[in-house]
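pls design
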C-alpha cells in the first residue's frame, strides 16, 4: 500500500519518528548574558552593547524551538527597543525608539529577556530566558555655549597696591558631560588693560594703579568650555580705583589695666574699624587672649590637688603621687620643682629625674575601674629615634622586669599600658591604648584624664573625649611573689642581668598626678578641675544686633565675632571684656591679638586689616593679712587633762583676714577693711619640741567637728592638719574643737603647739600662733594652827564631788598665851589671803564661764558665785577632818577607776594600760602630801 508515492512502512516510520520528536520539542529556555553595558550618543539611535546581544537555545537546530523570535524590554520610560537580526543565530540589536538627550538623562537601566519561537509556527509553548540587566550611558555632544552668571561685575581697589584677586567672574555650561560642561579658560577681550585673569575667573591688576591717572576701568571678559566653545555673550567688568586709605582699628589703647575683684572690664570701649567706605558684605574678628606663660596655661585655682577635688565634687580616695615635699611625702624632695608661679606646684623632668613612690602610698586595690589624671607640658622628643618617656610606671621591683601598668609618651603619642593579672582564661586581652594628638607635643599645658572601665579606656584632654586610635592585645601576667615598684618620671628596671636602675626618662613638666582606684571621674568634675578662671567675655548680649554671631572656645581664650555690617561689629567689639574670677589673680601681662578679615560683595577678601596687639595688665592684688589671735597660755589642773574630752587649746581662737587698700590719700595709705568672704585651704597644728607620746597623750579632733564642712583632717604624733577650701568661720569652728589630752599629767612640764593657716596653697600664710599648755600647780602649803584650809589660787569647775586632802595635826587643846598671839596674827593674815583668793576666783570664773558657753556639749557644771560664803571654824574637830579625809580618799579612788574615753586617734585599750601606774602615783602623792601637811582643794561643788 502506498501513500503519496511512499511505501506505507516508510511513511509509518517517518510519522512515528516525528511524533517521538514532537513530544520533546522546546525542552530548553533561551540563554543570554546576565548584564550588558551600552553607549549611545545623544540624538542618535544606535546602541553599542558590550557584549553583543546574542541569545542561544539548546533546542537548536530544531525549527521554531531552537530559534529566537523576540527580545522584550522591561523598564519605566526606557526609550529603547531590541530587534532580532537572525532567528537561527539569535543575533539582535538594541536601538533608541525615540531621541535621547544627555541633558535630560545621562544613564538608563532596564531589563531584557529573549523568547524562542515555541513548538511550531503558531508560537505555542514558547519559552523565555532569564532576566538580564542593561545599563546604557548617553554620550554628550557639545551643543551649549558657556553663560556668565552675572552680565555685569563691579569691584574696587586702592591705588598703589597689587592684588592677587580683585574679583572673580563665573560662567557655567548646560552640557551634561564634564568635558563640555566645565569652564576651562577665561580671557580678557579688551586689549591693553593692566589686568589679567586666571582659569578660575580671578581678575588681578598687573601694575600699581593711580587714582589721579585713571579712576575706573571697563573691561570685557569671555569664557571657554573644555570643548573650546566660546560664550555667546561676554561679561562686562567695572573696576573703580580708590585713593589711598588706611583701613584698620582706631580708638584703642595698647594697655588695659585690670584691678582684681572688679568683675568684667571692657577692653575696647571706643574702638572702631575704618574700612575706607568700601562696600563690605561681612567682617570677621578674632580676639585671642594669650595666657600660656601663666602657670598651667591660664589663671587657674592654685589650691592643693585634694582641695580642688573636694571643691569640684570629685570622689574621695585619690592618691597624690606628686605632693609637695614634706616629712610624710619625701619622695618628691629630689625632683626639680617650679613653684614660683603663683605657688602652682610644678615638677620639671629633664630626662634625669625620677622618684620611687613608697609602697604604703601606692594604691593596692586597682580594679576594673580607676582614674589616672595629670597636668602635662611636653614638647617633641630630641634626637632622630625618639625613646619612650615614662610618666608613670608600675613594674617588678626585682628579677622579671615586667610592666604591670604605665603611662608614657612615644613619638608624640600617648600610650597607656595595662597588663591584667592571669585569672582563669589564658587568652589575649586589651593591653596597650594609643592616642595621637597634637596637644602632646605642642609645649603647652593640658589636663589629661584616663578613665579605665576595663576593657574600655577613655582619654579626656582639657575636658574633650578622645577614643584610642589603636588598641593592642597581649597575654595576661601570671601571678608571682615579686613585689612591684611604682615610679614617676621613669620606669624602674629591676632585672637580674643589670643592676636595678631607672630607664625611659620623661622630658617635660608634670603637676597634680593622681590615681583614684575603684571610681572613674565624671565629665563635670573633669571640666571643673581644668577650668580657667580668666578669659574673654561679652557684656550686654541683648543689645547686640541680630546679624552678629559670636562663639568662644572652651577655655574662653578665643572669641570670634562675625557680622554683615561694620557698625554692628564696632558695637559688638566695644562690649568685649576681660574677666578674672579669682579673688587673688596672678599679676602680670596678658597679651591680646586681634585678627580681622573683611569680605566684600563677590570677593573673599577686599581689605587688608592689620593685626592689632595689646596687653591686659593684671594689677597686683591687695594681699590679705591673715591674723590668728587668742590666748597664748592655757593652764589647767591635772583632772582636766585626764578627762575624756581633755582640754581645748584653741577655744578662744579668732582668725581674721584684712586687706589694705592701695589708694593713697595725703601721703598715707588708707586703712584696711575686713574681708568676710575669704577662704582658707589648710591649717596646721604642729607640736613644738618632742613629738606626742601616744602612750600618755594625744591631740584629737572628732569627725563630727568636720560634718557639714568642706574639710578633712589628718592626725599624727607631730600634730593635726585640717585641709579643704572653706570659710574662715568653719576653720575657726573646727580648730576650737581640737582637744589635747594627757592621762599622765604628773610628768607634764609644758606642751607647746604652733598654729599656721594658709590661703591659696601657701601663697598667703598667717602669723605663727603659739600656745602653751601647762599643768595647774597648787599653792604652797601653809601651817594653820587653827586647822583652817588655805584657799587655792585658782578654782575651776569639774565633774567630781568636793575632795579635801588634809593632814592629822596633834595639837594640844590648850594653847599657851604666846601661841594665842601667833594664832591671832595668822588669822588676820588668812583673812587677807581669803579676800584676795575670792577676787581671783571671781576673775577666773568669768573666763571659764565663757569657755563653758562655747562648749555646750560638755557636761561641765556652771559656777554660781552669786552667794559666795566661806565658813572657817578655828576650833574644827580633828575627828571630823579625819573622817572627811577618808571620804576624799575613797572618792579619789573611784575617780581614777573611771574609763578613759577615746576622742581622737587613741583607743581605750591603749589608754588603760597605765591606769594602775596612775592610781599608784596618786596614792603616793596623797601620802606624801599628808606627811608634808599640804592642803589641796577641789572646789567643783563648793558653794560660795
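designed seq:
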Amino acid at each position: 500500500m502506498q501513500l503519496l508515492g511512499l511505501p506505507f512502512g516508510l511513511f509509518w516510520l517517518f510519522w512515528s519518528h516525528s511524533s517521538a520528536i514532537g513530544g520533546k520539542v522546546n525542552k530548553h529556555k533561551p540563554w543570554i548574558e546576565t548584564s550588558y553595558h551600552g553607549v549611545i550618543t545623544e540624538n542618535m539611535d544606535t546602541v553599542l552593547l558590550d557584549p553583543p546581544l546574542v541569545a542561544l537555545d539548546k533546542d537548536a537546530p530544531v525549527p521554531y524551538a531552537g530559534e529566537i523570535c523576540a527580545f522584550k524590554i522591561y523598564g519605566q520610560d526606557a526609550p529603547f527597543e531590541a530587534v532580532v537580526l537572525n532567528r537561527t543565530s539569535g543575533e539582535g540589536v538594541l536601538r533608541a525608539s525615540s531621541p535621547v538627550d544627555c541633558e535630560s538623562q545621562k544613564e538608563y537601566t532596564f531589563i531584557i529577556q529573549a523568547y524562542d519561537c515555541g513548538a511550531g509556527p503558531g508560537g505555542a509553548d514558547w519559552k523565555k530566558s532569564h532576566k538580564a540587566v542593561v545599563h546604557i550611558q548617553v554620550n554628550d555632544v557639545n551643543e551649549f555655549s558657556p553663560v556668565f552668571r552675572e552680565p555685569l561685575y563691579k569691584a574696587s581697589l586702592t591705588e598703589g597696591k597689587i592684588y592677587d584677586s580683585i574679583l572673580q567672574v563665573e560662567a557655567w555650561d548646560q552640557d551634561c558631560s564634564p568635558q563640555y560642561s566645565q569652564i576651562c579658560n577665561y580671557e580678557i577681550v579688551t586689549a591693553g588693560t593692566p589686568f589679567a585673569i586666571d582659569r578660575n575667573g580671578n581678575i588681578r591688576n598687573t601694575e600699581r594703579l593711580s587714582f589721579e591717572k585713571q579712576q575706573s576701568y571697563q573691561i570685557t571678559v569671555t569664557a571657554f568650555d573644555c570643548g573650546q566653545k566660546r560664550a555667546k555673550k561676554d561679561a562686562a567688568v567695572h573696576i573703580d580705583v580708590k585713593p589711598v586709605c588706611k583701613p584698620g582699628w582706631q580708638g584703642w589703647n595698647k594697655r588695659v589695666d585690670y584691678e582684681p575683684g572688679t568683675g568684667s572690664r571692657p577692653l575696647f570701649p571706643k574702638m572702631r574699624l575704618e574700612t575706607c567706605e568700601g562696600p563690605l558684605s561681612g567682617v570677621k574678628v578674632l580676639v585671642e587672649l594669650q595666657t600660656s606663660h601663666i602657670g598651667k596655661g591660664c589663671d587657674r585655682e592654685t589650691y592643693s590637688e585634694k582641695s580642688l577635688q573636694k571643691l569640684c565634687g570629685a570622689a574621695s580616695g585619690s592618691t597624690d603621687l606628686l605632693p609637695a615635699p614634706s616629712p610624710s611625702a619625701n619622695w618628691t624632695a629630689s625632683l626639680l620643682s617650679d613653684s614660683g608661679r603663683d605657688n602652682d606646684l610644678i615638677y620639671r623632668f629633664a630626662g634625669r629625674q625620677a622618684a620611687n613612690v613608697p609602697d604604703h602610698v601606692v594604691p593596692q586595690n586597682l580594679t576594673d575601674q580607676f582614674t589616672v589624671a595629670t597636668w602635662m607640658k611636653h614638647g617633641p622628643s630630641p634626637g632622630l629615634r625618639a625613646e619612650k618617656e615614662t610618666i608613670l610606671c608600675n613594674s617588678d621591683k626585682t628579677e622579671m622586669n615586667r610592666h604591670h601598668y604605665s603611662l608614657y609618651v612615644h613619638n608624640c603619642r600617648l600610650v597607656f599600658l595595662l597588663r591584667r593579672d592571669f585569672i582563669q582564661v589564658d587568652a589575649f586581652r586589651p593591653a596597650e591604648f594609643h592616642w595621637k594628638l597634637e596637644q602632646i607635643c605642642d609645649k603647652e599645658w593640658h589636663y589629661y584624664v584616663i578613665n579605665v572601665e576595663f576593657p574600655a579606656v577613655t582619654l579626656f584632654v582639657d575636658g574633650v573625649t578622645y577614643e584610642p586610635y589603636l588598641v593592642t592585645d597581649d597575654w595576661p601576667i601570671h601571678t608571682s611573689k615579686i613585689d612591684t615598684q611604682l615610679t614617676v618620671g621613669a620606669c624602674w628596671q629591676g632585672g637580674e642581668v643589670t643592676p636595678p636602675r631607672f630607664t625611659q626618662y620623661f622630658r617635660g613638666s608634670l603637676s597634680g598626678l593622681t590615681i583614684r582606684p575603684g571610681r572613674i571621674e565624671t565629665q563635670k568634675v573633669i571640666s571643673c578641675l581644668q577650668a580657667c578662671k580668666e578669659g574673654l567675655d561679652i557684656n550686654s548680649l541683648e543689645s547686640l544686633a541680630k546679624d552678629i554671631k559670636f562663639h568662644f572656645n572652651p577655655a574662653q581664650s578665643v572669641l570670634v565675632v562675625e557680622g554683615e555690617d561694620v557698625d554692628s561689629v564696632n558695637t559688638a567689639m566695644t562690649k568685649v571684656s576681660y574677666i578674672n574670677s579669682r579673688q587673688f589673680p596672678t599679676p602680670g601681662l596678658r597679651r591680646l591679638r586681634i585678627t580681622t578679615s573683611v569680605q566684600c560683595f563677590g570677593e573673599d577678601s577686599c581689605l587688608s586689616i592689620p593685626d592689632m596687639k595689646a596687653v591686659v595688665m593684671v594689677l597686683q592684688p591687695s594681699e590679705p593679712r591673715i591674723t590668728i589671735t587668742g590666748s597664748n597660755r592655757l593652764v589647767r589642773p591635772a583632772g582636766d587633762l585626764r578627762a575624756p574630752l581633755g582640754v581645748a587649746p584653741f577655744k578662744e581662737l579668732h582668725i581674721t583676714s584684712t586687706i589694705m587698700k592701695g589708694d593713697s590719700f595725703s601721703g598715707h595709705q588708707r586703712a584696711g577693711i575686713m574681708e568676710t568672704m575669704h577662704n582658707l585651704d589648710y591649717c596646721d597644728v604642729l607640736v613644738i619640741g618632742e613629738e606626742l607620746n601616744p602612750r600618755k597623750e594625744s591631740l584629737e579632733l572628732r569627725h563630727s567637728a568636720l560634718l557639714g564642712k568642706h574639710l578633712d583632717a589628718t592626725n599624727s604624733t607631730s600634730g593635726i592638719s585640717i585641709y579643704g577650701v572653706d570659710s574662715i568661720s568653719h576653720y575657726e569652728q573646727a580648730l576650737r574643737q581640737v582637744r589635747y589630752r594627757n592621762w599622765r599629767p604628773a610628768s607634764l612640764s609644758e606642751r607647746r603647739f604652733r598654729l599656721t593657716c594658709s590661703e591659696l596653697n601657701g601663697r598667703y600664710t598667717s602669723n605663727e600662733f603659739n600656745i602653751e599648755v601647762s599643768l595647774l600647780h597648787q599653792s604652797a602649803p601653809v601651817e594653820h594652827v587653827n586647822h583652817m584650809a588655805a584657799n587655792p589660787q585658782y578654782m575651776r569647775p569639774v565633774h567630781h564631788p568636793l575632795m579635801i586632802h588634809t593632814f592629822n595635826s596633834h595639837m594640844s587643846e590648850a594653847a599657851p598665851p604666846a601661841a594665842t598671839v601667833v594664832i591671832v596674827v595668822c588669822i588676820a593674815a588668812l583673812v587677807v589671803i581669803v579676800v584676795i583668793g575670792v577676787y581671783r576666783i571671781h576673775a577666773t570664773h568669768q573666763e571659764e564661764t565663757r569657755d563653758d558657753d562655747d562648749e555646750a556639749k560638755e557636761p561641765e557644771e556652771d559656777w554660781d558665785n552669786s552667794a559666795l560664803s566661806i565658813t572657817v571654824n578655828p576650833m574644827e574637830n580633828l575627828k571630823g577632818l579625819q573622817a572627811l579625809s577618808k571620804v576624799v580618799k575613797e572618792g579619789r579612788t573611784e575617780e581614777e577607776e573611771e574609763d578613759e574615753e577615746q576622742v581622737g586617734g587613741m583607743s581605750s585599750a591603749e589608754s588603760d594600760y597605765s591606769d594602775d601606774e596612775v592610781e599608784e602615783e596618786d596614792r603616793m602623792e596623797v601620802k606624801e602630801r599628808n606627811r608634808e601637811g599640804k592642803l589641796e582643794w577641789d572646789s567643783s561643788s563648793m558653794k560660795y
